[in-house]
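Is glycine placement plausible here? Inputs below.
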Amino acid sequence: MRILFEEKEVISGEEVEKALAFSAEQVLRNLPEFTDKFQKAYSEDGFYQPIENNYWTTGFWTGEIWLSYEYMKEKNAKDAEGLRKAGDIQVESFLNRIDNKIEVDHHDMGFLYSPSCVAAYKLTGNEKGKEAAIKAADQLITRYHPVGEFIQAWGPMDAPENYRLIIDCLLNLPLLYWASEETGDNKYRDIAEKHIHTAIKNVIREDYSTWHTFFFDMQTGEPDHGATCQGYRDGSAWARGQAWGVYGCALAYKYTGRKEYITIFKNVAQYFLEHLPKDMVPFWDLEFTDGDDQPRDSSSASIAACGMLEMIKYMDEEEGTIYKKYARQMLKSLYDNYAVKDSGKSNGLVLHSTYSNHSPYNTCNHYGVDECNSWGDYFYMEALTRLHKDWNLYW
Ligand code: GLY
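Reply from A.M.:
I modeled the complex. Tokens:
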């Protein structure tokens, strides 16, 4: 593999500490408004508005509360207790959500329930968190198609236009491994394994760029075609899709132990790195680079950094050092030029992300462009936490 960005500076331990401290304090400042409510998926002019627990992204905010709780607890700060109470209130909301089936008919159960309820259970033994997360895993496996051997992302299960998986789903699957571990029932893990195999076989192209979504034939289950949804065009690599691929392959290896996923991880990561602009924070689609008048997606850099920091656990030291350096370089760039430093200007953590950008070749609406978003903030904190200590992951 070609080594890139050799001269680029890495984030120091002191900067990691400062960034984490600011992030946890920013989360604390937000608690009065966002304990009974959740952050909207993206900020508007730098500020998140409160929403009910009814969107696919709400688990990220709760995840930030738990990461802040971990940090404050380690410092023996009295604020840890307030964070724990807020996290517990949010877990109750997630239990209510799954019990009453509020906006849960889609595949994002992992994004919702891993950083919120699995985290609560792992960190504090919260039994409601465990109950909610197992119910969410039960919900997730209802979206499995045995013919195509994949979990369908969105929409009713009986329509050919919905018969597809999306690369993002790789992050929803750790919930299933966790559910098998907790219940002793392998049905969750078996489905996750089948989906991982189908996804990795089809969404990764020959050059290791990735499809955002991939369709199958409803009758035979045979692969049909790839298509973008949030990327610039069908054949391009949506930056966040590629980043979900980086982290997704690392998690796929963690949970399956299949050696071939290490090689795939390296190639997917290499494609991501080769298509970064000079400051290592991608534009919203990897088609674009320095000089293009296009918005960035800073969340992709944090997601890819988390994937690299996970994968180095399974590499020899020499190889691991390479990916750790990339992660530290991306974090340095995010910290210096993208992270919020003044809570009067934003109630988020990282600016310049893109949720959904319209292009002449996609069907997306324009929202959350060049703003903070909830997962961008969460994965920035996760990456910092991974650099700060040996982190027991929520995924
Ligand atoms: N999983 C949807 C997104 O990354 O925007």
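Short version: The longest helix spans residues 79-99.
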